[in-house]
Records
---
Amino acid sequence: MTAGALTRARVAVFGGSSGIGLAAAAAAASQGADVTIVSRNPERLSAAVAKVPGAVAASVDARDAQAVMAFFDGRAAFDHVVVSAAEAQAGPLRQGPLAEARASVESKFWAAVNVAHAARIVPGGSLTLVSGMLGSRPSGGATILSAINAAIDNLARALATEMAPIRVNCVSPGRIDTAWWDFLPADRRKELLDRTAATLPVKRIGQAEDVARQILSFMTNGFMTGSVVLVDGGGAVV
């Protein structure tokens, strides 16, 4: 990808205040895009904008369909929109309250639906969703998250025909070293990520920037739509 590949492109990143979303926002800005970072957490939003030169902030809860609609109604159409917003919880379905499962669906799946429903994107522009490897390799240790990710994979495929000529794709990350793992004690987190790295063909854990590179490819490759791309260090083949 050449420098300035997204010069003056208007890019909105939902969930752009941390992790994969923040990496995608920074990567787009580095290629010349005018980036709007969208998040419901004011503190993280302020910190994120400070890290991405030229980015502007928008405080929006992607779970709120009316708030998402108002965000797009008040702005010119974007060239590219990314949805990485999620606070989904992992764990077996039967060991947690149903309210927690519903909250995960609202946070990750319905946030993507709300943005897809309201997004104003120029023809030939792109919408990129973020799912996860559990969509294709479901686990009883993360039942609802497995179902959500599979739903997002198929949402992207269906939207690619519904929204054409806007292009819709999905990146499905493997295990990535982001703040999502902060719920674990530091020693358990390190042990888990080190063990994962040892099993992967690439022999390292994924970083948010690895996923961001694929998101930028979706933006800049005008011949990609309806694709779900694994970025998992080879996890699917071991």
Note: Residues 15 and 85 are 4 Å apart (CA to CA).
---
Amino acid sequence: MKTCLALQHVAFEDLGLLEPLLTARGFEIQYMDMAIADLSQRDPLAPDLLVVLGGPLGAYEDDLYPFLKAEIEFIRRRLDQKLPTLGVCFGSQLMARALGARVYKGAAKEIGWKTLNAVGNGGCLAPVLEADLPVLHWHGDTFDLPDGAELLASTELYPNQAFAVGSHALALQFHLEVDGGRIEQWLVGHACEISITEGVSVPNLRADTERSAPALTSAAEQVFGKWLDGAGFR
């Protein structure tokens, strides 16, 4: 059986829509809670697929959260061997750092549902980009594009929204995996951030999710399926 290791930073930011897709393709899924995990006991090359999930930390906050150093090194060793690796939001920022790029605070918070601009043909993101579907953004940091990476999408506020490295690595600054039926967990888990971010509110996020999430589900499944195919998991 194929194995997927998911590095998790907060409980409600999990594989979401991606989990049933992986299960259907025969993956055995294991989560690791990075706040308490001991990565020294794990071989980064062993899982067939590594997914680095989101979270409210900064990928540059090694001094506050020392486990990040080990996590970035874990990701780097895997990427060095060109093994299938997917990063979501904070996970994409950790991938950028593992590839030698700078991660830093953005100009402003980008929280809520909005569309992406395609860069080139958009690669595996074409099902979302061509339909001009809003995706869920929830970030305040950004990154420089790593050397050798292909930029796939952007927004006006955050030019680097998604990148690919070959067929083995995909980094998404936004949340394509989010299950709209579970948005209440996000609204509770990020209550403090919502309350201090101008122009963002619980009622609006809830209403926008009800409006945008259903249409995104099918396209997200196509995107993940296309990437998994390209990574060798047909």
Note: Strands lie at 2-8, 27-33, 49-52, 85-88, 103-114, 117-118, 135-143, 150-154, 162-165, 169-172.
---
Amino acid sequence: MLDLSIVIVTFKEDLDVLRRCFESVAKSQGLSYELIVVDNARRKDTEQLLSEVSSTATYLPNPRNMGFAYAVNCGLRASKARHVLLLNPDTEFKPEALKNMVDHLDADTDVGIASSIIRYPNGDLQDSIRRFPTLLNQLVILLKIPHVLKRTRIIDRYMMRDVDPYTTQDVDSIMGAFMFIPRKTLEKLGLFDERYFIWFEEVDYCKMAHDAGLKIRHYADVEILHHKGHSFNKLATIKKQRWIRQSLRKYMKKHHGVLPWVILWALTPLFILLAYGAAIIKRS
């Protein structure tokens, strides 16, 4: 049985960024793997690039963009290995990175989801570990308070800036850019919730794992580079904000009940107004 199924969901990535990701996979050492690329944009140039880098990869084009969770599930259904990696197409890593993560999962059988240190291309650390969202910390974000107060205790706690990210530890949730899922987790939890079009789907899956008694672990001895938001930087800020609000409402209703969902719905006009204001300031 293969060690790892690598599932990459693509959507209109620049080909040079995508090539670096594919080549990182191709240079991986010390493990057996399969590469599955799910294309939400159905681009011929993506398929051509994949064929140039790998003759054995599986290419799964969707007829239209059905959302990230839907595309992930297409890849999960096709996967066959002992572990699965959900890998963002704008990532790069060293040849030993994947083997090291698989070795960790083989040794730590109580871990249900795992990731590593994630850096920007310039080497700066990304905030990739978080506590679970609450109504309070999400209201602070949606009300754009961090735009005025760069650091707040509520957001620092939510982003886990009160712990050492260079220490291997169990966390609530990890960034979905480099998300390892053992086969046993998939068998226990099932697939991703396709009610999320984009955003919060990986947080939801971490919450499902946590509630099922599985550990979510951040390994500090493995690192990757992540360009972060490479595809979504091309989209209008207002559209991205709408998707975030929609996904957050779904998450809150699913895990915290109707009241937070009602509060978020009632405040939506204010959130929209603030989103427009933030977009105007960002462009100025």
Note: The chain has a mean pLDDT of 94.
